[in-house]
């Protein structure tokens, strides 16, 4: 991970930047504190931007005649048009960026877990879905790293979001040069990572980089960027990660002794059985990379897709398969 890679992230302002929640409070989010030295934040509070003020009567998403409305039950105000206009204008005016960190359950910012009520009346039934701003983000930026802070309490979801965020930022910097050379270098450096995330997409991305048809660089970069977003859309399965680990071990097949090979094989089985973290196998492989001077693997982002200072093994306890 190069020191110059600094993701650009739109973040809900209430996540530690300003006391702008409906009740005039802020939310202390430890991940924001950890990320601040490594990312460029762009805070936003859609509800304040449309003039709701702080403190304010809560708003909620209500489904009426098959259409979602953003209403303020205490006042009867319908904020739908203002929120739609703000979301569209704000998102259109953004500079190139890499991801979003949004407030969970917020009727404006929530990307997936917002209560959508059948009526503005108390006690109305509800279902879950996106908020107005969060939904607009997902629609406009399907290839970016978009999450809410609640899901990032899960170790694997946090790891996948960070990996996606920093990989996209590195690609953005490579693409900004407008030449094939930086793309070739980017693809080579991320080959094992992409192999773990989505082999099918990786097979489509290789010919783009080869560019045998001599397409303009900007056209290739745009197509590659779309494929990259799709490739990183889901966290890799344990089986796919095992395949990459075995592939990496193959670089040392003539240098490892029988005991080392046995240890690695046993560690793989423990990882499959969820009895050993991935970090243990990565540490083992990194020790061999250093010991045998394996330069190609040393440069692979798979082994350090984001700054090590952001590694944190704390977890919500909801498991690897969430």
Helix share bin: 40-55%
Gyration radius over CA: 22 Å
How much strand content do the residues show? 5-15%
Low-confidence stretches: none
Give a description of the structure.
By secondary structure, the chain is α/β, with parallel strands linked by helices. It is 44% helix and 12% strand. The protein folds into two domains: 8-153, no CATH class; 178-322, no CATH class. The strands form two sheets. The chain has a five-stranded mixed beta sheet. The longest helix is centred in the middle third of the chain and has 21 residues, at 155-175.
In short:
This protein has 322 residues and is an alpha/beta fold. Helices cover 44% and strands 12% of the residues.
């Amino acid at each position: 991970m190069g020191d110059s890679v600094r993701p650009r992230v739109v973040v809900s302002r209430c996540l530690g930047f300003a006391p702008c929640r409906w009740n005039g409070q802020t939310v202390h989010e430890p991940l924001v504190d950890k990320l601040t030295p490594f990312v460029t934040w762009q805070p936003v509070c859609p509800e304040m931007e449309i003039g709701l003020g702080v403190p304010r009567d809560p708003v909620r998403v209500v489904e009426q005649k098959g259409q979602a409305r953003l209403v303020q039950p205490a006042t009867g105000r319908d904020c739908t048009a203002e929120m739609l206009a703000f979301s569209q204008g704000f998102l259109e005016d953004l500079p190139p960026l890499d991801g979003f960190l949004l407030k969970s359950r917020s009727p404006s910012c929530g990307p997936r877990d917002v209560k959508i009520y059948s009526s503005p009346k108390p006690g109305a039934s509800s279902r879950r879905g996106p908020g107005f701003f969060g939904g607009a983000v997902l629609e406009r930026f399907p290839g970016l790293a978009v999450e809410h802070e609640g899901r990032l309490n899960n170790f694997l979801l946090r790891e996948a979001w960070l990996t996606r965020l920093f990989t996209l930022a590195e690609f953005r910097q490579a693409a900004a040069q407008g030449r094939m050379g930086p793309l070739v270098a980017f693809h080579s450096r991320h080959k094992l990572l992409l192999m773990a995330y989505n082999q099918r997409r990786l097979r489509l991305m290789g010919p783009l980089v080869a560019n045998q048809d001599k397409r303009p660089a900007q056209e290739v970069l745009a197509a590659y960027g779309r494929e990259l977003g799709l490739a990183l859309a889901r966290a890799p399965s344990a089986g796919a990660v095992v395949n990459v680990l075995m592939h990496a071990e193959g670089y040392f097949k003539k240098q490892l002794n029988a005991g080392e090979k046995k240890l690695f094989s046993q560690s793989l089985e423990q990882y499959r059985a969820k009895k050993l973290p991935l970090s243990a196998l990565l540490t083992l492989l990194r020790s061999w990379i250093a010991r045998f001077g394996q330069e190609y693997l040393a440069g692979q982002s798979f082994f350090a897709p984001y700054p090590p200072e952001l590694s944190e093994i704390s977890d919500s306890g909801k498991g690897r398969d969430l």
